[in-house]
Amino acid sequence: MADDANRPRARGATAATRAWGPPRGFFDVWSRVYDHPVLQWMTYRPVHDAVLRALRRRPPQSVLDLGCGTGQLLARIAGELRPRRLAGCDYSSGMLTHAAERLRDGSAVPVQVGGTSTPAAHGATPAGLALVRGDALRLPFASGAFDAVVSTEAFHWFPDQDAALAEIARVLRPDGTLLLGFVNPPLAVIGDVFRIGSRLLGAPLRWPTPAALRRRVEAAGFAVTGQRRILRVPGFLLPPVLTEARRL
């Protein structure tokens, strides 16, 4: 699964800018409340629903969920679309432990960590599904490994978004699908408040405008096929933007 020899170093990737921006412990703590039903219903399910609708239009046989968290979307993809190969990648061991508990069915699969295969590092999961603790700026997967890459509520944490897009393009096959959903405040003043708060918490957020993101995605080798806001209830929550693109 790993392809270190043929993988170009992501643009701008350094030891200081790898993976998710906040300290890993931030997400390990967050994983304890992430699965609360009300939080999922209000925050994550609307964008997950939109991603699944888009995937059904071109059902993929291999899918990577980048920033998979506790495996909520992974479980739905596995159950509703049944791809032959499904991988979840996250920076947080705490998140992956919860994902393994959700997806466990008693069978063991290799888990890749930094290119080294470690059987059942996060517990047993269904055959054909791997959980990976990995770096968004240096993905431990072969070039052209996936028909689709999805990432929801994670991209705004990446410290070098152009490098992350370059890695996503690398692991996608030509004509593969990218579905990228990330928080994007509709008003600048709201964005400023959340940005300041996130920095005080040691977890800085980065969100380009939808137009700027479109340009970045296209510069990474994609054709953008759609972009829209996902409405959530209650309305005070920051609405994510879902960008759909095809790998050229």
Textual characterization of the structure:
This protein is an alpha/beta fold and 248 residues long. The chain has one domain: Vaccinia Virus protein VP39 (Rossmann fold), CATH 3.40.50. Helix content is 33%, strand content 24%. It has seven helices and nine strands; from the N terminus they run H-H-E-H-E-H-E-E-E-E-H-E-H-H-E-E. Strands 5-2-1-6-7-9-8 form a seven-stranded mixed beta sheet, sandwiched between helices. The protein has a two-stranded antiparallel sheet with strand order 3-4. Strand 1, helix 3 and strand 2 form a beta-alpha-beta unit. The longest helix is centred in the first third of the chain and has 21 residues. The radius of gyration is 17 Å and the shape is globular. The two termini are 22 Å apart.
What characteristics describe this protein?
248 residues; two-stranded antiparallel ribbon; 33% helix; disordered N terminus
Short description:
The protein is α/β, with parallel strands linked by helices and 248 residues long.
Task: Note the topology.
Blueprint: H1 24-30, H2 37-57, E1 62-66, H3 72-80, E2 85-90, H4 93-103, E3 110-113, E4 116-119, E5 129-133, E6 146-152, H5 161-171, E7 172-183, H6 188-200, H7 210-219, E8 222-229, E9 240-247
Parallel strand pairs: 1-2, 1-6, 2-5, 6-7
Antiparallel strand pairs: 3-4, 7-9, 8-9
